[in-house]
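Input (Cyanamide hydratase):
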Amino acid sequence: MTWTLDTPSARAALEIASEYADTALLNHSVRSYAFGARYAADHGLDHDEELFYVAALLHDLGLTAPFDSHTLPFEEAGGHVARVLTAGLGWPADRRARAEEIIVLHMRDDVSAAEDVESHLLQVGTSADVSGLRVAEFDPSFTARLLGAHPRAGFGPVFTALVEDQARRKPDCAAASYVAGGAATRIAANPLDA
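Output:
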């Protein structure tokens, strides 16, 4: 399985993510895509692969200094980044809105595949990579190849610090609820870091 998608939009998303995210955050975005795409394949979930890839690669850019908003939750800021990038790529308004929506929903209550398959896949992919949720459902050889190609690079502590910062500065955001719900403990216990 390849960890990238080769379309002009996918290449642009990877280029932007590579420019603004550090190695830990960039590799997390790629792994989130890979876990979600593998989950879709394993469960026969038909989805818009390019839309999902672009959303996955850009979903955490709102955590980076250039795109961190002092008023918006990071997922909403990241959604706006996706909307602007895809406008430049010529995506129609409804497709741009979908990219934004997928990124925003990844931090919301569970979204079923029947409701919104791409949002569901991003939730599955990010949850597997951040806290190890469902990671045991993936073939161990797949996971080992993915981690070999895109190492963790200290992702757990980096991500914990980023979401805790968001929670402190934006106490009404989804990251604050996530942190209050024991995120640091779950992230530290991720079997991918064992």
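The chain has a mean pLDDT of 97.
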